[in-house]
Write a structure and sequence with these properties.
The relative contact order is 0.16. The protein has 5 helices and no strands. The chain is elongated and about 55 Å long. Helices cover 73% and strands 0% of the residues. Helix 2 packs antiparallel against helix 3. It has one domain. With 127 residues, it is mainly α.
Length: 127
């Protein structure tokens, strides 16, 4: 039973870390281009990105369930450990370029001018 809790938390944590890294990548691109993230750099995020909230709720729900049904000390340790690891592990910015380029191509069909500006931001990214 313990292994299932840990595997479930590990999977949810990895997905959350990957989604967090994608958001941080768009923030870095925006800052580098001198553009506000809201209404600018956030356009680089895929349309499905709001699903991130489900992952966040799922992670905290899982930790709460672990605390109630298994051991609150382990759940607290995982919450703190997960936070520390997410601060220490570097975000693999380059890994997100493909997803961000696909988003620019989607936007190109809707608004070519905005897409070309976003593409310029992506091309001048510091990674």
């Amino acid at each position: 039973m313990e292994a299932k809790w840990l595997i479930a938390f590990g999977l949810v944590w990895l997905v959350h870390f990957a989604l967090f890294g994608m958001q941080r990548t768009t923030l870095l691109i925006s800052r580098n281009a001198g553009v506000e993230w809201k209404g600018g750099g956030e356009l680089l995020l895929p349309r499905w990105y709001p699903v991130t909230w489900l992952v966040i709720v799922g992670k905290w729900g899982l930790l709460l369930a672990m605390a109630i049904l298994w051991d609150w000390k382990i759940a607290l340790g995982l919450a703190i450990g997960g936070y520390i690891v997410s601060v220490v592990v570097p975000i693999p910015y380059r890994a997100y370029k493909g997803v961000l380029r696909r988003r620019v191509n989607q936007l190109r069909r809707q608004d070519p001018m905005v897409a070309s500006q976003l593409e310029g931001m992506l091309d001048s990214a510091p990674f």
